[in-house]
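TL;DR need structure tokens for one chain.
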Amino acid sequence: MIAGLPFNYKVYAKKNKLYVVIDYKDTDGNRRKKWLPTGLDVGTKKKEINVVTDGIVSEYYKKNSSLFNPAEKSTGEVAVSSVSEKNTERSSGKFELFDFMDKWLEYKKPRVSRLTYDEYCSGIRRAKQFFKEKTFYIDSIRPIDIQDYYNSILSSGVKSSTLKNRHLCMHNLFEYAVKLDLIPFNPTSRVELPKNEKHEATFYSKDELDALFNVFVDDRMELVVHIAAYYGLRRCEILGLQWDSVDFENKTITVRRKVVTALGDSGEYETICENKLKTNATRRTLPLVPHIERLLSAKKKQQEYYRKMLRGGYSREYLDFVCTDDFGNLIKPEYVTSHFRYIVDKNGLKHLRFHDLRHTCASLLIANHIPLKAIQDWLGHANFQTTANIYSHLDFSSRVESAETISNILGDAESGIGGTHTEPKKNARGRKKKNPDNSGDNAQS
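>> reply
TL;DR here they are.
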């Protein structure tokens, strides 16, 4: 290793051969790289690599000293790094971490939903608060720095699910840096994350659900609650329903939009409707349940009545939407959550989050022997594994079936009666062994 040179150097492996890479600034201040073959193979002893590398670097410096910016003072490094042919010439430009975060947000904004972009902005703000004490460059962040950041989040008392969201944000950020060839690997992939805390959802039985329906009679959220219980739709999917999604003739209802609250361009939160759903599975067409069809027909007539009665006092902004109040205003996501909790607590019902109506719908389907695959389609999960992870523990009927099956196969152990007949084992001469409990002529009566 040679110190005090006006450039950095490092040994890289490419196609099973070792190369010395000179990284320097020229007299004009421009970053340059020079690849020099060592003639050594990967696996060569480090001592031999050091000797050969020092010779190559010294010779190169003597012949090309006029190329380098004298202001540069660096230390050589001979640790071997593996590089793919695609990434042999990495960009050496220095990006400050905060500047790169801003560039990444600009890149993501038109490519993700408003809600996801909101999550990214929140994650970036939290990361900037942690890293503000020191100037970091995108290529100087180490896994230990990321681990310290995650530990600070956990120490603040938040749930592991919140840390998971922050991790997804940082992982995507650095993955973009890898894609742009600014860093060789994603530092977030080398940190330890806590195990996810499994949320035990609360379910209502059919009787408890009937009691819930009774307390919401004539409430502005009556239709919202019934749709959530019957279809297991997410809050954003229910509020995103428009009348063109309801086909009374063909008896179908289609989920194709969502309503969310997100940070607007003005810096204030606003309610927006998006056509872009989470996954392709989220966009689904379901049969129109007769009970919901009657409620929707009554809602449509009610909207027409209030629109005529209130005239100018009736909002024209949300005429296409199903879930509106008596003045034609769209029911907001925050109102659904807060008002639902208020009504449940006021009437002394078992505590239940609004989202738990989705779980209640699934639990009732499972209790009535609907397969998990069909429930996946009904709820709009992207894959079967998600459905199985959440609801497989509720599928007790399948365990009963398994118990009956294994009992039929193995039989009743106490009675000695097996479900399957097996031939007696044979001895070494091929003769059937006698049953010690049935010794034939020698058996005592």
